[in-house]
From TrEMBL, chain A:
EC number: 7.1.1.8
Residues bound to heme c 2: 152, 155-156
Protein's name according to its UniProt entry: Cytochrome bc1 complex cytochrome c subunit
UniProt cross-references to InterPro entries, sorted A to Z: bc1_cytC-su, Cyt_c-like_dom, Cyt_c-like_dom_sf, Cytochrome_c_Oxidase_Subunit
Automatic annotation (TrEMBL), chain B:
The protein, known as: Cytochrome bc1 complex cytochrome b subunit
One GO cellular component term noted in the UniProt record for this chain: plasma membrane
Cofactors (names): heme
Enzyme Commission number(s) from the entry: 7.1.1.8
Record field: compositional bias (Basic and acidic residues): 550-577
Chief location category: membrane
Transmembrane segments: 67-87, 130-151, 163-183, 195-216, 228-253, 282-303, 351-374, 400-422, 434-450
Annotated source species: Flexivirga endophytica
Length: 259, 596
């Protein structure tokens, strides 16, 4: 009898078989999962070049003149900021229709994005891409925190970890979003998000909010592992699994000691 | 004679040996001298000797309650530390401490002092996190302890009162936890208090008055934090400790229960005495619990109030949840359908809130409190029980318990519906609807599945007792047939599998007495018979010594009494073992067989 057969009733056998199954499935998935095709790009910078890009990448939904179509809204008056946000975060061109355009790998390089933005801005007046002095942080963190809790936390959570909206929509996590994109999102109100224009939250307020978020990301968690800053749910989960689990292991060990 | 009076008379017997005018102990050294000095002034020797000789059985599941006990001690110690700095006041202040992201922010003194404990006081954050983690583990261990007591039937006579005390402790622990969660006046606690005020307001007619009385006016007012503080550090801990003392004294009076095993009866306790074994074990386990709690508190952040920021009634954060033990009530609110709120007589009736937030906990606790009495009524069992049931041997009870846990678990999971939605990219609406359906359907399915599993496990046990364990050793007979040799269980293993009670359903007595007159209790009897059939109609009886003997010595004849007649007829359980003697068919032949 081979040793493998002899051990088939070992308590760990089922765990090992499961683990093997998982590794094989995961490995096969990783090997065969579809990869992103490299998007065509061009180096031209002008609005005219942007128009060309628009016709080949966006017009099927937004219309030949950007005035909207069956699949997408009009882009007249959305401004360069909206394009920079949507294209720069990979939300547009839309990967697949769903309840919400999801962030993804940007399909255009910075120059093409700028060209597209320049073209859409030429369709009608709208908010432009903010200057870097407003989006690099350096504002009042405490004030920004207060503004964030009043205006943003109800959807994006107190630490910008994101939150659920109705029917599968969600307010995304803000931790890896650049200051520029956060500013543009506030300015243009993409998808479910309301618009926070300059009379609502001044440019300085937006800068403070960005500074607060950058600080949340940069500061170390004084209490230890933050478990994603999602509030009491992960804490309860931890107590029910690892916390009590460790104690029960010790209890089992102590119980065995007597026998 | 009941066990209680017996225990008392045992204690009396111990006292009878006492010499009233005993001279100072000659032996015993300095320790004995001190003990004697104490005893002469307090008479404590009898009690201490009784405690030191008290025997406790050993099993890891008996330590779940211990974890709760130690967590309570940790909570009292760490909580005392926190009161040195916490300021229970709603007075307004402006933060000027070292934590930059809050500098210049207006906040209450309660919040400011909690930030101070977290950021300025040496070791303050660690103690805060120990306190909070310990509170979570406290209620987790209470819940698990309760599961253990329920599934092993430790709530049966004489322990019904202790079961109810335990339920009260569990409820108080939850309330105490909620109050503590509310004290720092951060964004989450403020939201929690606001939600609680909404619950109170949902009580018809008197809700508004209760809210005004509790808050001393409108929400939030200045009074709520100081009042919660008094309840949290004074009133509830006193009741908790008092009830806990009663709980533990009753354990002493009843003796501890034990799992079935050789030599274990309803009249004895098999285990080790308190001194020195349990004192060392339990004492050591206290430090283990404290150590692990401190380890978690040192490594994993909990309730980072400086991130939440101070509470303002205009603010809220996504992912606002209570601590886990209140989660099921929050989940009930998330699942209750909106049409339960309606307008009638010019008033709004918010039953969508009231059912989950106000009525549910008392109803659930009443059901749990009544359960021992219901089961006793069904079984008609008036005996004392000190031997625990294995859960599989009480399939209906185990099924009911698992169904209740499923019901609770779904409410609990529903409380995190938003977190589930973002983490698994699902629609919160679909999740909520699925939970609503699951809340009704799943307990029924789980009951059925668990009951069937218990019955299967019982059959498996039966099979194991009758045929032994598959050894993995294949034997080829002279005729060329193969079978797997079975190893017989030893007597100790077998005992646990055969020595259990298996109540049969009560039969319905005739509805009329011998004179043909209708009995007064006929209807009650009919109900009881029906419930009893529900409980016990599916049963696998334990193996009797006769069955065992015939299974082992008569070979083929043993198959005749199999629970599955079809298998018995074909005789394939051993697949050829009947061709050779039992000594070869079993790995460990009995001495009787060896003589052949």
């Amino acid at each position: 009898m081979s040793s493998l057969v002899a051990r088939r009733r070992h308590p760990a056998a089922i765990a090992i078989v499961l683990l093997l199954g998982l590794i094989i499935t995961g490995g096969l998935y990783a090997a065969f999962a579809p990869k992103n095709a490299d998007a065509a790009s061009s180096n031209t910078q002008t609005a005219a070049a942007g128009h060309k890009l628009f016709l080949s990448n966006c017009a099927s939904c937004h219309g030949l003149d950007g005035a909207g179509g069956d699949g997408g809204p009009s882009l007249v008056g959305v401004g360069a900021a909206a394009v920079d946000f949507q294209v720069g975060t990979g939300r547009m061109p839309l990967a697949n229709p769903g309840v919400q355009a999801e962030r993804g790998k940007p399909q255009f390089n910075d120059k093409d994005t700028a060209a597209l933005a320049a073209y859409v801005a030429s369709l009608g007046e709208g908010p432009s891409v903010p200057s870097s002095s407003l989006t690099q942080g350096g504002g009042d963190i405490a004030k920004g925190g207060e503004l964030f809790r009043v205006n943003c936390a109800m959807c994006h959570n107190f630490a910008g970890s994101g939150g659920a909206l109705t029917r599968g929509k969600f307010a995304p996590n803000l931790m890896d979003v650049s200051g520029k994109h956060i500013y543009e999102a506030m300015l243009t109100g993409p998808q479910s998000m309301p618009v926070f224009n300059d009379s609502n939250l001044s440019a300085q307020d937006k800068k403070d909010i960005i500074s607060f978020l950058q600080n949340v990301k940069a500061e170390s968690s004084p209490g230890g592992w933050s478990m994603g800053n999602l509030g009491p749910v992960p804490e309860g989960l931890f107590a029910w699994t690892i916390g009590i689990g460790m104690l029960i292991l010790i209890a089992v060990w102590l119980g065995k000691k007597a026998a | 004679m009941s066990e209680q009076t017996k225990a008392r008379s045992t204690a009396d017997a111990l006292r009878a040996d006492d010499k009233k005018d005993a001279p100072a102990a000659a032996g015993g050294g300095p320790v004995g001298a001190v003990a004697n000095w104490m005893d002469e002034r307090t008479g404590s020797a009898k009690g201490i000797s009784y405690l030191m000789k008290k025997v406790f059985p050993d099993h890891w599941s008996f330590m779940l309650g211990e974890i709760a006990m130690y967590s309570l001690v940790i909570l009292l110690i760490s909580g005392t530390f926190l009161t040195f700095w916490f300021v229970p006041s709603m007075g307004e202040t402006v933060y000027n401490g070292p934590y930059v992201p809050l500098k210049g922010t207006q906040m209450s003194e309660a919040f400011a002092s909690t930030v101070r404990i977290s950021m300025d006081v040496k070791g303050g954050l660690l103690i805060r996190q120990i306190h909070h983690w310990s509170a979570l583990i406290f209620v987790v261990s209470i819940a698990l302890h309760m599961f253990r007591v329920f599934f092993t039937g430790a709530f049966r006579k004489p322990r019904e009162i202790n079961w109810i005390i335990g339920l009260l402790l569990a409820m108080l622990a939850m309330v105490e936890g909620f109050l503590g969660y509310s004290l720092p006046d951060d964004l989450l606690s403020g939201t929690g208090i606001r939600a609680m005020q909404g619950f109170i307001l949902s009580i018809p007619v008197i809700g508004t008055y209760i809210s005004y009385i509790l808050f001393g006016g409108g929400f939030p007012g200045q009074d709520i934090i100081p009042r919660f503080f008094t309840l949290h550090v004074l009133l509830l801990p006193a009741i908790l400790v008092g009830l806990f003392t009663a709980h533990i004294i009753l354990v002493m009076v009843h003796k501890h229960t034990q799992y079935p095993g050789p030599g274990r009866t309803n009249k004895n306790v098999v285990g080790f005495p308190m001194m020195p074994v349990y004192a060392a074990k339990a004492g050591g386990f206290f430090f283990v619990v404290f150590g692990i709690t401190a380890l978690i508190a040192g490594l994993v952040s909990i309730n980072p109030i400086w991130m939440y920021g101070p509470y303002e009634p205009t603010m809220i954060t996504a992912g606002s949840q209570p601590d886990w033990y209140m989660g099921f009530a929050d989940g009930a609110l998330r699942l209750l359908p909106g049409f339960l709120e309606f307008n009638l007589f010019g008033k709004t009736w918010s039953f969508n809130i009231m059912i989950g937030a106000i009525l549910m906990i008392p109803i659930l606790w009443t059901i749990m409190g009544l359960y021992p009495f219901i089961e006793k009524w069904v079984t008609g069992d008036n005996e004392e029980h000190h031997i625990l049931d294995r859960p599989r041997n009480r399939p209906t009870r185990t099924g009911l318990g698992m169904a209740a846990i499923t019901f609770y678990g779904i409410l609990f999971a529903a409380c995190g519906n938003d977190i589930i939605a973002i983490k698994f990219h699902l629609s919160i609406n679909d999740i909520t609807r699925a939970f609503q359906i699951g809340l009704i359907v799943m307990p029924i399915i789980v009951f059925w599945v668990v009951k069937r599993m218990c019955l299967s496990l019982q059959r498996y046990d039966r099979d194991l007792v009758l045929h032994g364990r598959e050894s993995g050793r294949l034997v080829r007979t002279a005729k060329g047939r193969f079978f797997e040799a079975h190893e017989d269980l030893d007597d100790y293993e077998r005992w646990a599998l055969v020595a259990y009670e298996s109540p049969a359903p009560v039969d319905l007595e005739s509805a009329t007495d011998e004179n043909g007159v209708r009995r007064k209790s006929a209807r009650k009897d009919r109900l009881r018979a029906r419930v009893s059939h529900y409980y016990f109609k599916d049963r696998v009886e334990p193996v009797t010594p006769m069955e065992l003997a015939s299974a082992h010595h008569d070979g083929q004849a043993g198959e005749q009494i199999e629970s599955h007649p079809d298998e018995a007829e074909s005789g394939h359980m051993h697949g050829g073992a009947e061709e050779i003697g039992a000594a070869h068919a079993y790995g460990h032949p009995s001495p009787h067989d060896k003589q052949d």
